[in-house]
Amino acid sequence: MTYHNRMKLEFINKSENESFARVAVAAFVSQMDPTIEELIELKTALSEAVTNSIIHAYDKSQEGIIEIYCTIKEYTVQVIIEDHGIGIEDINKAREPLYTSKPEQERSGMGFTVMETFVDELDVQSLPGEGTKVTMKKTLNRDIH
User: Fold this and answer.
1) Where does the chain show beta strands of DSSP type E?
2) Where are the alpha helices (DSSP H) in the chain?
3) Cβ–Cβ under 8 Å, residues 53 and 81
4) Helix (H/G/I), strand (E/B), else coil: 23
5) Active-site residue numbers?
6) How far apart are CA 56 and CA 70, in angstroms?
7) Residue 1 confidence (pLDDT)
8) By C-alpha distance, which of 29, 52, 9 is closest to 138?
9) Count of domains in the chain?
10) Rounded distance, CA 144 to CA 32, Å?
């Protein structure tokens, strides 16, 4: 069986919405009958991207929107997490392990590293003052489906 489907999700930058996003995307992807491991990996990468948008895109007093676009084509899931916040000055530096722009919040600086570990492709685009778009792709193991 081949799959083709898409969905869009939009919510405000509240920390409690991170788990909502994770569950919603997992429910959407479940139509592909992923393994538990595949689902955990995708949910982990998604959590990191959404948490980055919640914590870094908008300052605490600012309510902002985070959008998730999820597309399924054949056995590949593409998830885009987009915000319209402050953006990232230096994407390469932000992707370095242990780098954090908010050390006072005891952030680990491992978000992008975790994302790269659990997806097949990771693309980060950002413009200061305009926001950030993280695109992740993961192909599920066809041999077991």
Assistant:
1) 4-12, 65-73, 76-83, 121-127, 131-139
2) 17-29, 36-52, 91-94, 111-118
3) yes
4) helix
5) 48, 52, 107
6) 22
7) 59
8) 29
9) 1
10) 11
pTM, entire model: 0.86
131-139 and 121-127: which strand pairing? antiparallel
Residue matched to tokens 């492709």: 121
pLDDT per position as a tens digit, 100-125: 555 555 555 567 788 889 999 999 99
Q: What's the one-letter identity of residue 71?
A: T
pLDDT of the residue at 17: 95
Higher pLDDT, 16 or 60: 16
Residue type, 6: R
Dist CA 6 CA 29 (whole Å): 10
Burial class (CB in 10 A: 0-12, 13-18, 19+), 13: buried
Identify the domain containing residue 14 by its residue range: 4-144
CA distance 85 to 67: 12
Strand 76-83 relative to strand 4-12, pairing: unpaired
CATH code of the domain covering residue 85: 3.30.565.10
Q: What tokens were used for 9? A: 């999700």
